[in-house]
UniProtKB/TrEMBL annotation:
Matching InterPro entries: BRCT_dom, BRCT_dom_sf, DisA/LigA_HHH, DNA_ligase, DNAligase_adenylation, DNAligase_N, NA-bd_OB-fold, NAD_DNA_ligase_OB
Pfam families found in the cross-reference section: BRCT, DNA_ligase_aden, HHH_2, HHH_5, OB_DNA_ligase
Any one GO molecular function term: DNA ligase (NAD+) activity
Reactions catalysed, as given in the entry: NAD(+) + (deoxyribonucleotide)n-3'-hydroxyl + 5'-phospho-(deoxyribonucleotide)m = (deoxyribonucleotide)n+m + AMP + beta-nicotinamide D-nucleotide
Binding annotation for NAD(+): 35-39, 84-85, 108, 131, 167, 281, 305
EC numbers for this chain: 6.5.1.2
Superkingdom of source: Bacteria
Residues annotated as the enzyme's active site: 110 (n6-amp-lysine intermediate)
Protein name: DNA ligase
Keywords of this entry: DNA damage, DNA repair, DNA replication, Ligase, Magnesium, Manganese, Metal-binding, NAD, Zinc
Chain residues that bind Zn(2+): 399, 402, 415, 421
Amino acid sequence: MKSSNMTLKDYKNLITTIEAHNFYYYGLDQPRISDSVYDSLMQKLITTEKEHPEWITKHSPTQRIGDKPLEQFKKIKHGEPMRSLDNAFNEKDINNFCSKNQNAMTCELKLDGLAISCIYKNKKLEYAVTRGDGVQGEDVTSNIKTLSSIPLQLPDDAPEHLEIRGEVVIFKKDLEALNSKQKQSGNKTFSNPRNAAAGSIRQLDPKVAAARPLRFYAYSAHGDHLPGSHYERLQQLNKWHIPTTPKVVKVSSPDHIQAYYQQVLQERATMPFEIDGVVIKVDLIQHQEASGYTAKAPRWAIAYKFPAEEAQARVIAIDWQVGRTGVITPVATLEPTQVGGVVIQHATLHNIHELQRKDIKINDAVIIRRAGDVIPEVVKPIISLRNETCIDIKPPNTCPSCGSTLQREHIFIRCMNTTKCPKQIEGRIIHFASKHGFNILGLGQQIIQILCQQGLIQKPSDLFNLSVQQLTTLPRMGSKSAGKIILAIEKSKYTTLPRFLYALGITEIGKDTAKLLSKHYHSITKLQNASIESLSDISGIGPIVGKHLIDYFSQSENINEIKYLISQGVNIQEESKEPDTTHTAVITGKFDKSRDEIIEQLAKIGIHVSSSISRKTHYLICGQEPGSKYDKAVKLKVPIIRSNSLTEILTKLQSS
Ligand code: IVH
């Protein structure tokens, strides 16, 4: 091997150079060197690190991919909630917003991806968290570290503490390439860039994230000694090689905002990423703070949303899909059609009534529409393009899944074979295991479908009798993956009442209604015995929901399934609140290990280290020669762990 003759200083400079080129390439989309020159810089870094393994820092670009798959994501509470934005849809809404905020403003793009908060401590990326429910999110640091557009280390003039929030996105062209790769390897394709970004970050194997062409754009920064204007903060981030939301401008009037909006709307189709509007913000941070927040959103910012995108497509066929409640939904198969940078092949017609009202025929040219995350829909046929090749659609008389006779119910047609219809059974189990239900990680739709087809499961409770051996009979399922799924099924037994209720799939009981009911009844037994009068006393529960609940709990097979689930070890925590598992600790004094190592080891046992102490701090970790934090902890009655040995601290914490 040729020796690189590098000094430690050269090594550090090389890292800075590579990170700068990552910014030009991924952040600005304007590479300054060719791919081969970039590759040779990386090669030089790898060679140097082989010669000097003692120099390797975890902030080196070579360390982005290394982490092992996680068992699950840790929950982390945001310092400040990650709120969402109120929406404006027209000029009037904007005028109204401007009349309440008469200060200088900025306009920028509203990127359609996944919101992430990146926390830098001592200029190093410490952790990255998803928005989650706005109060707490998931620790996705090992996935975020694989994004070359997020620096692992900031320059010397960056503050000690910096929180950067922004959006992880995937370029439209990269999504196309990713989807063809997914198809070739027999994997599920992503329906839009937002799903691809979220799906890549919210999975447990960093190597998967590393292979996905994700990018990050910051839209806010908080920390010490930052400029007092939002516009200047974004510029400052660029100087630190952090990409920011493109096309930020200062504006001074509602007309100016309209002109910006119209211009961006025109450029939208040719932009490399998906945007769903523009964001208008009050520029000065002190003015933002003075405006404050409503329960959900800042008063100093608003999203000016774009209208849904539409395109012309041709209907090839109509597929009748059987849902978990037996409702049959007509779905149009289309000639592949681009709508706002995404190829659409299926669009819903919602129900039989809509299909007939819109008078859609096979081979019709139709207008299709997609907006954000909503399933694309067929809006209307283009009657002027209709010809003799267009043929009427005949709604089915029998269920496409079980063959039983269908019934018309208002705007729906429904299969009444609730207990035996294979597609209804499959749908119920998929719903049971889904994110807001038992949240069984790794047990996706496709696996459940095969398990049902092979007769291994017929009802949700059968999931708890599955064995590793049975799962390994599935295509492409090794014993390791099967073991993980069985473990996830076991873990899912510890659940909460809202999740349990949602998972049962009672008609009209979504996640919010499930939460509301849990708050009032606290246990499944109390809810089972609730009268229609007591249900209708709850504000937010109407007579229809009440009737569905009474109907559901009056059927013996449902009661038996609930009893069976509980006898299988399903443990419903009576409390409707999800447990907050993150604890915070503050450190003071000297220890036998470096601060970085202590912070890393504490993170592994679910303890997040914070720099400032408050009544809410769970522990003060106190080494030799503590500072003023010790006095403060005593004053605030924060429990103190005294030791300068990391091993001893970990033992004390784990037994506390
Ligand atoms: S500011 C407190 N700026 O839109 C306000 N958000 O609907 C924080 N988003 O969750 C948001 N581009 O993920 C802001 N330039 C931008 C944005 C942006 C996309 C997302 C963000 C947020 C959602 C709100």
